[in-house]
């Protein structure tokens, strides 16, 4: 790690750990994406870590003699890490002896989390704009467009959903929004002719496009390293609710449809209320599919980094099961 113009630059990336000698000391900064307390039946205690940067992730452990109480509250923060490399079952791990939170402004976020390519982001921006044009109800379409302006869409292309789970890279928010929106909208549209109950495609599309509308405001207010508590509804995330309310001042939609839209957005998250409408169920299902697909993709991405033989199976930590790429 070196310092240039008051900013630290990484010298060691997680994708390079296979080339590091067993027993070598590491001193660099990583995103502490997860931390878990463990103990064995013999009384051995340790913290299990997941350390990430823009090239991938590496597992780490803090044994009982080096555990500090504050470590458990630092998930999602960029940490200066000191430790020793060791190989377990052919996989590099890091025995961490010391961690310290890095101050905002002392590091470049692009070195810690990866980014989608500009070409990919351009395609996703066009797809989002195309879907907004396809919303059948002109009033609902105009309402969504008043929120999803070009500036906001570009902002979504620079942000992760969050740094703790799915789509945890720059552009992940836009990618996830696109997956949920197209998944819910076109599934519902495709089955319209064979279902007895017809979905309101306008509200469904609006709910999908806006289901994570609170994320930019949340990150702007709390920063990247703030731990996101489980989703507690738009009332708890007042900035997102304020965005939705303010848009009604520009585009008039009925109170009934606005309440329905709020329910779709709130029910789209697993820890939100249970979906009570067809539209809410469709968006929630599309959201869950996008999350699980991303977790599978990230599992195999890390497997490719750490296994030169590119195995067709890997253990997915987030899903807690072995997954296969056949």
Report the helical percentage. Answer: 25-40%
Number of strands: 9
- Tally the helices: 11
Which structural class is indicated by helix and strand composition? Answer: alpha+beta
Largest beta sheet: what is the strand line-up? 3-4-5-7-6
Q: On the 0-100 scale, what is the average pLDDT?
A: 87
* Model regions low in confidence, pLDDT < 50 over at least 5 residues: none
Integer-rounded radius of gyration: 22 Å
The proportion of residues in beta strands is 15-25%
Shape: elongated
Distance between the termini: 39 Å
Q: What is the N-to-C order of secondary-structure elements (H for helix, E for strand)?
A: EEEEEEEHHHHHHHHHHHEE
How would a crystallographer describe the biggest sheet?
5 strands, mixed, barrel
Task: Quickly list its features.
single chain; 326 residues; alpha+beta; five-stranded mixed barrel; two-stranded antiparallel sheet; 9 strands
Q: Can you characterise this structure?
A:
- This protein is of the alpha+beta class.
- Helix content is 40%, strand content 21%.
- The protein has eleven helices and nine strands.
- The strands form three sheets. Strands 3-4-5-7-6 form a five-stranded mixed barrel. Strands 1-2 form a two-stranded antiparallel sheet. A two-stranded antiparallel ribbon has the order 8-9.
- A hairpin with a 4-residue loop joins strand 8 and strand 9.
- Helix 2 packs parallel to helix 5, helix 5 crosses helix 11 and helix 6 packs across helix 10.
- The longest helix is centred in the C-terminal third of the chain and has 29 residues.
- The two termini are 39 Å apart.
């Amino acid at each position: 790690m070196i310092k240039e113009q008051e900013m630290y630059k990484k010298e060691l990336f997680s994708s390079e750990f296979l080339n590091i000698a067993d027993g070598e000391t590491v001193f660099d900064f990583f995103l502490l994406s997860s931390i878990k307390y463990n103990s064995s039946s013999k009384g051995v205690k340790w913290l299990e870590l997941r350390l990430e940067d823009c090239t991938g992730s590496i597992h780490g452990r803090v044994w009982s003699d080096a555990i500090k109480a504050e470590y458990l509250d630092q998930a999602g923060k960029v940490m200066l890490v000191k430790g020793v490399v060791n190989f377990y079952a052919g996989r590099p791990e890091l025995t961490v002896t010391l961690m310290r939170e890095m101050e905002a402004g002392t590091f470049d976020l692009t070195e810690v989390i990866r980014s989608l390519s500009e070409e990919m982001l351009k395609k996703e921006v066009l797809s989002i704009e195309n879907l907004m044009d396809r919303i059948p109800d002109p009033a609902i379409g105009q309402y969504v467009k008043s929120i999803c302006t070009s500036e906001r869409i570009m902002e979504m292309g620079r942000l992760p959903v969050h740094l703790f789970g799915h789509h945890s890279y720059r552009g992940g928010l836009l990618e996830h929004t696109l997956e949920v929106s197209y998944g819910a909208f076109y599934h519902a549209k495709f089955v319209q002719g064979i279902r007895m109950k017809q979905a309101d495609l306008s509200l469904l599309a609006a709910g999908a496009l806006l289901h994570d509308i609170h994320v930019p405001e949340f990150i702007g207010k709390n920063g990247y390293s703030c731990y996101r508590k489980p989703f507690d509804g738009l009332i708890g995330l007042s900035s997102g609710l304020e965005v939705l309310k303010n848009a009604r001042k520009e585009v008039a939609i009925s109170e009934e449809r606005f309440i329905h839209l709020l329910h779709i957005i709130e029910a789209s998250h697993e820890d939100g209320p249970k979906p009570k409408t067809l539209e809410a169920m469709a968006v929630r299902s599309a959201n869950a599919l996008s999350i699980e697909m991303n977790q599978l993709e990230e599992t195999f991405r890390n497997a490719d980094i750490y296994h030169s033989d590119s195995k067709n199976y890997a253990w997915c930590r987030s899903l807690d099961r072995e997954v296969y790429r056949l």
